[in-house]
Specification:
The chain is built from 23 helices and 33 strands. The chain is α/β, with parallel strands linked by helices. The structure holds a DNA duplex.
DNA sequence: AGCACGCCGACT
DNA sequence: GTCGGCGTGCTC
C-alpha cells in the first residue's frame, strides 16, 4: 500500500485521469482514500490539490518514476466510495472532467486556492524589479502585478537560478481541531517492561493504547474520562511511544428543545401513497415513484410521513426542492417535524455555514437533509428515501459544467443505496410521466385537494380586447376583482414574469432599440437603480434622454415589467399595499424571507412578483391570483415552452384558495386559445399531457427522442462558426443514420458577454456511436480550445438561449 | 492550467 | 547572428 491514485485539480481533457503518487513514510497510515492531498504536478515545483481515489501497491510494470504526495489536506476523508464512484459515472455521463464533478459534490471551500511567491537568491541589475525586492526577499507573485518587461526579466532570472518560485495550495476549509495522540508502539510487551511499576498513570495510558492501537485518541477525553494527566501523556511523547496530532473536533449533537408537530391524519389517497413507498423502503427496493398530485393535495405530508418511516428503519432521507421553493414556510414544516435531525442546505448560508452543515451530515449527525440541487450530493451514508419535490422544475438541471440532472443523480444514488425515490409534482415532466406510463416508474395519484377544497375558479381574459382601456397591464375584470378582494381584507398574488420597468427603449424617429454592447439583447429599463440593465451580463448604463443614434428626443419605452406594474397598480387602486418580489428586490440576504413574512403578517395585500412567487407559497388569505401576461414564456425558442407555461400557470393558480376560502384566478393573455393556457385554466394535466405528447411525437422531441445540445463559442464569430460546421460535419458523418442533427445555427441570443455562440442539436433514440463521437469532438478540438474556443456538450438541455 | 521545448520572424 | 514570439506536448 504505497501508491495513491489521485485526481488532480487541472480541469483539462488530457489530465482527466488518475495520476499515481508515492506515499511518503510519514503519511503512511494517515492517508486514506477520499482525502484531499497536495501533490507536485508538472515542471518546476508547481503544486496542485488532488483527491485520492484509490490506494494500492505499485504495479510491477510501471516504469515511470513516481513523485511523492506533498501533504494531506484533510484529517479524515471528505469522500466515501459511493461519491467517488458517482463522480466518475457523472463525468462520463455529462462529458465533463472528474475533478469538476468531485468539486461540485463538495462545499465550495474545499476547492483550494492557489498562489505563488518569488524569492530572490542572487542579485538583480534591473532597477524596477530590484525595487520590488527592496523590503523583503520573498514577494507574492501575481502575473498582472508585473509589467511585461519585468515578466521577461523574471523568467530570465529563473533560468539562471537567481530566483526561486514557490507554489502554495491553500486549504480554505478549516474545521475546528483538537489535540489527539497516535500510538507509535509496535511491541507492547517490551514497553511494558520499560515502565516503572509505580508509574500508575503511564501504565493506564499504555493499556489504553494497547486497546486502541490504530486510532487517534483525543487528549481531552483521556484526561477527562480516564483520569490520566497531561504530563503522563507528554512523557510518552518524549519517549516516542505516541505522537501528537490534530484531529477534527466533532460537534456535540445538541438536543433541541423543540415541540415537534405530530403527523397529520392522511386521506385515503395519501395513505395509499405512503403505504406503497413504505413497502419499498422496508424491502430495500430502489423503485421510482411518480407522485402526481394536484396543488394542495398534501404531497408534503406524504413526504414527511415516508421520511419518518425511513428514520424508523434506522436510515436517512434526502429531500430536494427547487431553490425558490426553499421558503421558510417549507423549511419550517420539516424542522417542526424532525427537529435537530434535519440539516438544511440553502443559498442563504455563507460558505462557512454550508461547510459546517456538510460536516454535520458527513459525521452522521443529520438524518434528514433538505436542500436545492447540489444537496443531492449530501454525504449521507445510509439513505432510505430520496424525494424530489416539483420534479419537473428546470432548476434541477445544472446549466454549466458538470451539466447533471438532479433526477438522474437521485436515481443513481437510490440504486446504490437500494432505496426508493419519490418524484413529486402537480405537473410532472413529460419524460417522467411517459416513463410512468410505460411502467418504468410507479405512478401514484393524488387527484383531490385535502379537506375537499375545490380547485380555484379560473377565468381567461383576452387582452386583445382590453388593450384600449387601462393601458396594457390590467384588464377591467382583474381590476374589479382586485378592488373587491382588497376591500374584503383578503390578499392577492400577481405574477408578471418580467423584471424591471420597461423591457426595451425604442426611438420613434429612427427605430433604434437600445442594445447591450456585449450581448445581442435589448437593455431593460430599471427605475429602482435609474439604469438600463442587461439581464444577461449585468451591464448597466444611465437611462438616455435622447436617442444615442439620431439624438431625437422622441424615445419611448415599451414592455411592462414588475416595476411598472407596481407603479400602475398604486395609481389605479390607492388602497393596494404592494410588495414586489423579483430578483431585484430579493438580492440582499434575507430579503426573500422578509417579503414573505410581511405578506404573511398582512402588512401588504398584494404580492407582485416574477415566477419566483409561483411555487410553494401557502397563505390562507390569498383568494385571488392574477397572471398579468401568460404569454411571456410561450414564444421562447424551446420545445418545452408550452410545458413551462402550463406548469407555471398551474403552480401560480394553486396559490389561491388554499384554506377554507374559495380561490379565484384570472389569467390575462393575448393567446386565449392556446392549449397550454386553456388546459392550465382547468388544471387538466392529463389532457395537456396527451396533447403535448402528440406534438412532441410529431416534432421528434423528448420523451420520444433524447436530445444533446452542442454549443460552440468564441470571441471570434468566424472561429465559432467555422468550428461549429466542422463539428457538425463530423457528427453527420459518424452518427447513425436515424439520428437527427439540427444546425449549426447561431444561438437565439447569438452573442452574450462578447462571445459568439453556435449550437447543434442532436436528437437520437439509440446511437452506439454517439458517445465516442462526442468524446472525439472534445479531443480533436484541443488546438482551437487553446485559442479561446469553447465546446459545451449538454445532455438533455433545458435552456436553448 | 502552466511550463519547456522548438521553430520562425525582426532587431542590436 | 540572437531574442522572443507562439504553436505543441506533457504533466504520476
Amino acid at each position: 500500500m504505497n501508491v495513491a491514485d489521485v485526481i488532480v485539480d487541472v480541469p483539462t481533457m488530457q489530465t482527466n485521469t488518475p495520476y499515481s503518487y508515492l506515499i511518503p513514510d510519514d503519511l503512511k497510515g494517515r492517508l486514506e482514500t477520499g482525502m484531499r492531498v497536495v501533490v507536485p504536478f508538472g515542471n518546476g515545483n508547481r503544486k496542485v490539490e488532488g483527491f485520492v481515489v484509490g490506494i494500492g501497491n505499485l504495479a510491477q510494470d510501471k516504469t515511470t518514476t513516481l513523485k511523492s504526495i506533498s501533504s494531506i489536506m484533510d484529517l479524515s476523508p471528505v469522500l466515501n466510495n459511493e461519491l467517488i464512484k458517482l463522480s466518475s459515472w457523472m463525468a462520463n455521463k455529462t462529458y465533463s472532467f472528474q475533478i469538476s464533478c468531485l468539486l461540485t459534490m463538495l462545499p465550495s471551500v474545499m476547492k483550494a486556492e492557489y498562489s505563488s511567491t518569488v524569492e530572490l537568491i542572487g542579485e538583480i541589475d534591473d532597477k524596477s524589479l530590484a525595487n520590488r525586492f527592496k523590503k523583503q526577499q520573498v514577494i507574492p507573485f501575481d502575473e498582472d502585478h508585473f509589467s511585461k518587461a519585468e515578466m521577461a526579466k523574471l523568467s530570465d532570472l529563473k533560468k539562471r537560478n537567481q530566483i526561486k518560485m514557490t507554489y502554495h495550495v491553500q486549504n480554505k476549509a478549516k474545521p475546528k481541531t483538537e489535540l489527539a495522540i497516535l500510538n507509535q508502539i509496535t511491541d507492547f510487551a517490551e514497553v511494558t517492561q520499560e515502565i516503572s511499576k509505580n508509574a500508575t498513570a503511564q501504565i493506564k495510558l499504555l493499556k489504553l493504547l494497547q486497546k486502541f492501537p490504530d486510532q487517534p485518541l483525543i487528549q481531552r477525553k483521556i484526561v477527562n474520562e480516564n483520569a490520566i494527566s497531561i504530563s503522563a501523556i507528554n512523557n510518552f511523547v518524549k519517549k516516542g511511544f505516541v505522537k501528537k496530532i490534530r484531529v477534527e473536533k466533532y460537534r456535540n449533537p445538541y438536543k433541541h428543545q423543540i415541540v415537534l408537530n405530530k403527523p397529520k391524519k392522511l386521506n385515503s389517497d395519501q395513505q395509499i401513497a405512503v403505504n406503497k413507498v413504505d413497502r419499498a423502503i422496508a424491502q430495500h427496493h430502489d423503485r421510482v415513484f411518480l407522485l402526481e398530485g394536484v396543488t394542495g393535495s398534501g404531497k408534503t405530508e406524504v413526504y414527511l410521513q415516508t421520511i419518518q418511516h425511513a428514520i424508523n428503519d434506522k436510515r436517512q432521507a434526502l429531500m430536494l426542492v427547487p431553490e425558490i421553493a426553499l421558503t421558510p414556510q417549507m423549511v419550517g414544516r420539516v424542522k417542526n417535524r424532525f427537529g435537530s435531525q434535519v440539516a438544511i442546505i440553502h443559498s442563504g448560508l455563507s460558505n462557512g455555514e454550508k461547510y459546517d452543515e456538510w460536516r454535520r451530515i458527513n459525521q452522521g449527525e443529520a438524518q434528514v437533509v433538505v436542500g436545492a440541487r447540489s444537496a443531492i450530493f449530501a454525504p449521507l451514508k445510509n439513505i432510505g428515501l430520496i424525494i424530489l419535490d416539483e420534479e419537473h422544475d428546470a432548476s434541477y438541471k445544472q446549466d454549466d459544467n458538470p451539466r447533471y440532472h438532479t433526477r438522474d443523480v437521485a436515481i443513481w444514488r437510490a440504486a446504490y443505496h437500494h432505496c426508493p425515490v419519490i418524484l413529486g409534482s402537480a405537473t410532472p415532466s413529460l419524460e417522467s410521466r411517459a416513463r410512468a406510463e410505460k411502467g418504468v416508474y410507479d405512478l401514484i395519484l393524488l387527484p383531490n385537494r385535502i379537506n375537499q377544497q375545490s380547485l380555484p375558479q379560473v377565468t381567461i381574459v383576452d387582452m386583445t380586447q382590453e388593450i384600449e382601456k387601462h393601458g396594457d397591464i390590467f384588464s377591467t375584470e382583474l381590476l374589479n376583482d382586485l378592488k373587491q378582494t382588497i376591500n374584503q381584507g383578503n390578499q392577492v398574488v400577481l405574477m408578471l414574469n418580467r423584471r424591471g420597468f420597461s423591457s426595451f427603449m425604442l426611438c420613434r424617429d429612427c427605430g433604434h432599440v437600445l442594445m447591450c454592447p456585449n450581448c445581442d439583447i435589448s437593455l431593460t429599463m430599471h427605475l429602482d437603480s435609474h439604469t438600463m440593465k442587461c439581464h444577461y451580463c449585468g451591464f448597466e448604463e444611465a437611462i438616455p434622454n435622447i436617442c444615442p443614434v439620431c439624438h431625437s428626443k422622441n424615445i419611448r419605452y415599451f414592455g411592462t415589467g414588475t416595476e411598472r406594474a407596481a407603479q400602475q397598480l398604486e395609481k389605479l387602486i390607492p388602497e393596494a399595499k404592494i410588495l414586489r418580489m423579483d430578483v431585484d428586490t430579493t438580492k440582499r440576504k434575507g430579503a426573500h424571507e422578509n417579503i414573505l413574512r410581511k405578506f404573511g403578517n398582512h402588512e401588504a395585500n398584494v404580492l407582485l412578483g416574477t415566477q419566483m412567487i409561483a411555487k410553494g407559497l401557502d397563505f390562507p388569505d390569498v383568494t385571488l391570483v392574477g397572471v398579468l401576461n401568460a404569454d411571456t414564456g410561450l414564444d421562447l425558442p424551446n420545445f418545452r415552452a408550452s410545458e413551462r407555461t402550463f406548469d407555471l400557470l398551474t403552480q401560480v393558480s394553486g396559490r389561491a384558495g388554499r384554506s377554507d376560502k374559495n380561490g379565484k384566478v384570472i389569467i390575462q393573455t393575448f393567446n386565449p386559445d392556446n392549449y397550454a393556457i386553456k388546459l392550465a385554466s382547468t388544471q387538466n394535466y392529463e389532457k395537456f399531457f396527451q396533447k403535448e405528447m402528440e406534438l412532441r411525437h410529431l416534432a421528434d422531441y423528448a420523451p420520444y427522442y433524447f436530445t444533446i445540445k452542442v454549443t460552440i463559442s468564441s470571441l471570434s464569430e468566424h472561429q465559432a462558426a467555422k468550428e461549429a460546421y466542422q463539428v457538425s460535419n463530423y457528427l453527420k458523418g459518424n452518427l447513425e443514420k436515424d439520428t437527427i442533427i439540427l444546425g449549426p445555427t447561431p444561438r437565439p441570443i447569438a452573442r452574450v458577454k462578447s462571445r459568439y455562440y453556435y449550437q447543434i442539436i442532436i436528437k437520437y433514440k439509440r446511437d452506439q456511436n454517439l458517445d465516442q463521437a462526442l468524446k472525439h469532438v472534445q479531443q480533436v478540438s484541443q488546438k482551437e480550445i487553446r485559442k479561446g474556443l469553447r465546446i459545451a456538450i449538454d445532455p438533455e438541455p433545458v435552456n436553448f438561449m
